Amino acid sequence: MIVPTFARLRPGSRQDLSSLLLPLLMLLAVAVTSGALAWSYINDNIVIYGDSVSHLQIARQVVDNITPGASQLGTSWLPLLHVLELPFIWNDHLWHSGLAGGIVSTIAAWGSAFFAFRLAQELSGSKFAGFAAGLLLLSNPNLLYMQTTPMNESLFICTALGSAHYLVRWVKDSRDQDLVLAGLFGLATAFNRYEGWALILAQAVVVAIIAWRRGGWEAGEGLGLAYASLAGLAPLLWFVWNWVLFGSPFDFLTNPFSSRSNMDIAMQEAGISTLPTLHNIADSLRKVLGKINKEELLHKLNEMEKAGIITTEITNKEDEPIQTWRSTMTSTRNTKSLLEICKTKLLRIRRM
């Protein structure tokens, strides 16, 4: 039997402290995230990301355009964030300042704190663990900033945590309503970011395996397909949307604003015809894991220095020379991506 937290009182004793942890966390979440939103608003930091402006523009075009309507939601970005911005985007101040999207992201951050608490509580059996998980989420500066912007990361975290929470509850208790809720949150996740497609596929496999272990092949097949049919509506409807409105079910992959088109532009700016690790999984993993050939990187950096793209500074520490590179053209895309690798892995290379 579920008893409301405010009613969990022991006769003749004070209220159980653990019953106050979730309300306390939610109060902290509202205070911290609202404070972060106010800070971003006062300092004009809400729309620093170029994509922030694009997210706002897409939502605004639905209601303010020569040809307004749902078709203005476009095809490159999945539509959930833009749909949720519609109640706010009509207001010029909320649109121009970015608050139309920041409000949505901030509310999503409240949901993220709630589901982080519940998920950790389900996994550990402890409300204190749930409180710690919520605090850890709220103490992340990057997430605190992102939840003030019209970007879709905050909403993605919220829906993904919600889906994971209800899936864990279904695994523990086998209640059909929890599986349905997991599917609905999975649907929302897959309508928000393309990473959500991988998430719902993985969750469908988990559902099928657990159901198979509990009830045999028929149960695994039935429940796995049931979950996939609900959460998988997002990719299916997106293919149909692209096909009907833009002539191809894969228009989101090839249109002028797609990631592929942006990458083509970046390669043109870099003067290359193909990516160095294209179709080479082993080389991709080697670079992602940081096992970059130092001499190769030094050669590229020296070439960039000769071209005036970066500058070199040599300092001494403990009688050992250290070379540091800094960008002189921070707006160049290929320069930024190479220097990002350097900053995280090899920004300061010891000259042996």
Describe this structure in words.
With 352 residues, the protein is mostly helical. Among the domains are: 17-151, no CATH class; 290-350, no CATH class. The protein contains 17 helices and three strands. A hairpin with a 2-residue loop joins strand 1 (310-317) and strand 2. Helix 1 (21-42) packs parallel to helix 6 (127-138), helix 3 (80-89) packs across helix 5 and helix 8 (153-173) runs antiparallel to helix 9. The protein starts with 20 loop residues before the first helix and ends with a strand. The model is unreliable at 1-7, 319-337 and 343-352 (pLDDT under 50).
N to C succession of SSEs: HHHHHHHHHHHHHHHHEEHE
Low-confidence stretches: 1-7, 319-337, 343-352
> What is the count of helical runs?
17
- Write out the strand line-up for the largest beta sheet, numbering strands in chain order: 1-2-3
> N-to-C terminal Cα separation, in Å?
68 Å
SSE class: mainly alpha
Counted beta strands? 3
Characterize the overall form: globular
Would you tell me the overall average pLDDT? 83
